[in-house]
Amino acid sequence: MNPEHPVKPATAAAQALGYVDPGTGAIVPPIHPSTTYERDADNKLVSGRLYSRADNPGYEQPEALLTRLEGGAATAVFSSGMSAATAVFLALRPGDHVLVPRVLYWAFRNWLAGWATAWGLRVEAVDMTDPAAVAARVRPGETKLVWVETPANPTLVVSDIAALSAVAHGAGALLAVDSTFATPVHTQPIALGADLVMHSATKYLNGHSDVVAGTVTTAALNEHWQAVKTVRSQAGTVLGPFEAWLLLRGMRTLFVRVEAQSRAAQAIAEHFSGHPGIEAVLYPGLEGFPGHGIALRQMRGGFGGMLSVRVRGGGPAALGFIGKLRVWKRATSLGGVESLVEHRASIEGPQSPTPPDLVRMSVGLEDVGDLVADMERALPGGRA
To answer: DSSP 3-state assignment of 149?
Structure first.
């Protein structure tokens, strides 16, 4: 795209930054399956590329597009959201102190409690919704990273990115944000002071439940960023060329998908607030939700397509509710075009901190009336 005529993010996404293949005029990028690259007669790399474990031409467009959407300096794509998240921590050194939230994705919580601590990181959990509590736990000169997930999985709690950035930087630490639920459609953490932004690209960035991928975007090309790139190459957590192509394909519809999903999630949250079969609706777009004011400041154009409901009657009632759904699909994951529902406590197991009455819901692109009617039929005391 012409830098003299900047376009809005939705246009940049839809046109994949205006890509046109210079050789054929094709507007869809090609797939590059080659694992290796030729040297010239002087043994110099013709393209600057050595081997696909370090880089692949197919990474360039999705990485450049997400860098543009996040307002960062560079992006790296990974083989999964977990590999992207863990690379941020593995780029640190044994003995470094890190702060993580008490509410975060279950699989990543387990990795932090197991592998990260065994490797030598000093991991401490804190309430990230309370910047004062975080300020009391950072250790200047020792804390190297503050990690926050907002809105958090699965309770949707919201943390103040700008306030946490000030706390982290005041202690000489980096702030990394898992923005999977928010997406760059609604939040740009780097503009709020974050140093790193991570996405499970399996979810909204791809948006079609057919790719496992992850991304990390950096605000600066610093030493830590180089270490993240080295972890990706040396651990081999690279994305396949076809998967990279599918990820870019999905990102081209990111804005229209997420905006529609956010509108539907808002309508569903408002409809079921005060429902006789629902104890509470957890959604940042509701005025009475804790953190709603922060969400208004740092989320623009909507509050995302994720919500959770706490079903009246506890765990058995929650399981009974999802068992009766017919339009919503009972499946793990989120962010796709189909609406998914999951009872997280039973998935996470006996050590889960998730309330047993909580049901996590990923709103897709179906007719919102169909989704509401399906929930009404399944809930005790339904109003259908």
So the answer is: strand
Instruction: Please say if 178 is a catalytic residue.
Output: yes
- Catalytic residue flag (residue 203): yes
Q: In angstroms, what CA-CA distances link 28 with 4, 10, 220, 227, 249?
A: 23, 17, 29, 32, 9
The reported pLDDT for the residue numbered 4 is 56
Low-confidence ranges of the chain (pLDDT < 70): 1-5, 381-384
Domains and CATH numbers, the chain: 9-251 (3.40.640.10), 254-378 (3.90.1150.10)
Q: DSSP letter string over 150-169? A: SSPTTT-----HHHHHHHHH
53 is catalytic: yes
In the residue annotation, 59 being an active-site residue is answered as no
Record the tokens describing residue 53, joined without a space.
Answer: 């474990």
**pLDDT at res. 382:** 58
| CA contacts within 13 A on the Cβ side of 98 | 29
Tell me the pLDDT tens digit for each residue of 337-369: 999 999 999 988 888 889 999 999 999 999 999
Q: How far apart are CA 41 and CA 46, in angstroms?
A: 10
Q: What is the pLDDT of residue 365?
A: 98
Would you call 77 helix, strand, or coil by DSSP? strand
> How far, in Å, CA of 346 to CA of 356, rounded?
8
Choosing from 160, 178, 195, 374, the catalytic residue is 178
Query: Alpha-carbon distance 136 to 219, whole Å?
Result: 26
pLDDT digits (tens, 9 = 90+) for 174-210: 999 999 999 999 999 999 999 999 999 999 999 999 9
Catalytic residue among 49, 53, 122, 139: 53
Number of helices (H), then strands (E), belonging to the chain: the values are 15, 12
